[in-house]
Design brief:
Blueprint lengths: L6 E5 L2 E4 L4 E4 L2 E3 L3 H12 L5 E2 H8 L9 H13 L8 E4 L3 E4 L4 E4 L20 E6 L5 H13 L2 E4 L1 H4 L6 H11 L2 E6 L1 H5 L3 H13 L9 E5 L15 E2 L4 H12 L3
Parallel strand pairs: 9-10, 9-11, 11-12, 12-13
Antiparallel strand pairs: 1-2, 1-8, 2-3, 3-4, 5-7, 6-7
Helix pairs in contact: 1-3, 6-8
Length: 261
């Protein structure tokens, strides 16, 4: 069963119209079976969150006995329809648990603008571009890439290692320089990032050192939860934001920071 919605979601080159039960790519209709469309709706409306296999099975086939292969097959059909490849992913498989839509869809009500209508003026018109360092775990790279693109669209200058680091760069030196030059450090949190050791923890330590040098009250570190996970103790002094659901709140925080540059 599909959710009773009249909303429209935009992601990448796609527009998903729940009311019309239609998917368009660059304005052209994409043919989907009812079950495949229902699957896409379920994933998109819960973007960034894990949707369990049991939940999806219950939504797609509530009164129909189906084999265990029905869901993976429908996922495969959907991935093909979206044109997924190694460079572009929309759906993340969480082994033995379920699936997660990793793009950042922009939701709107049918007939209204496809971008959120923010009351504050664009970031690019306030004190120049804002430099934002993206700190994340490798496992979250697909979701962070989408966040990177969306921030760029909103006038932010994000720093992302795979975009800014060049072969031969001294990694730690470049990271320290980038963090120190940034106006904001966005620490992207997930169950993977909070539980692993390695580069992401070193980046957080560097950001904490720089934060201690900032004037009291300066918005510098913003923890951003990409899924339901615990915020590490050393980051709990700062109010966090849940993405993508609270993206507009993140933009407001960045706008506030831009006024104090």
């Amino acid at each position: 069963m599909s959710p009773e919605k009249t909303n429209v979601w935009n992601f990448d080159a796609f527009q998903l119209d729940a009311g019309k039960r239609s998917l368009f790519r660059d304005g052209q209709p994409v043919s989907l079976t009812p079950a495949t469309l229902d699957l896409l709706l379920q994933l998109v409306e819960k973007a960034g969150r894990l949707v369990t296999k049991a939940e999806l099975m219950g939504k797609l086939w509530p009164d129909t006995p189906v084999s265990d292969e029905a869901l993976p097959f429908t996922i495969s059909v959907l991935r093909k329809a979206l044109g997924e490849n190694e460079q572009k992913r929309f759906i993340e498989t969480v082994p033995r648990r379920g699936y997660r839509f990793v793009a950042l869809p922009v939701e709107s009500v049918a007939g209204k603008p496809s971008r959120p209508a923010l009351e504050l003026e664009p970031l690019s018109s306030r004190c120049g571009a804002l430099d934002v360092f993206l700190c994340y775990a490798h496992e979250d790279r697909m979701r962070v890439r989408e966040l990177y693109q969306r921030l760029r669209q909103d006038g932010v200058t994000p720093w992302l290692d795979e975009k800014n680091l060049l072969p031969g760069h001294d990694w730690e030196r470049e990271i320290r320089t980038a963090v120190r030059r940034s106006d904001v450090v966005l620490v992207c949190l997930s169950r993977s990032s909070v539980s692993k050791s390695g580069f992401v923890q070193k980046e957080i330590r560097i950001a904490l050192d720089v934060a201690d040098e900032k004037p009291e009250g300066t918005i510098f570190i913003i923890p951003a939860r990409l899924e339901d996970c615990a915020v590490p103790d050393r980051l709990q002094r700062w109010q966090w934001v849940d993405l993508p659901e609270q993206y507009e709140e993140l933009v407001r925080a960045l706008q506030a920071r831009a006024t104090t540059k």
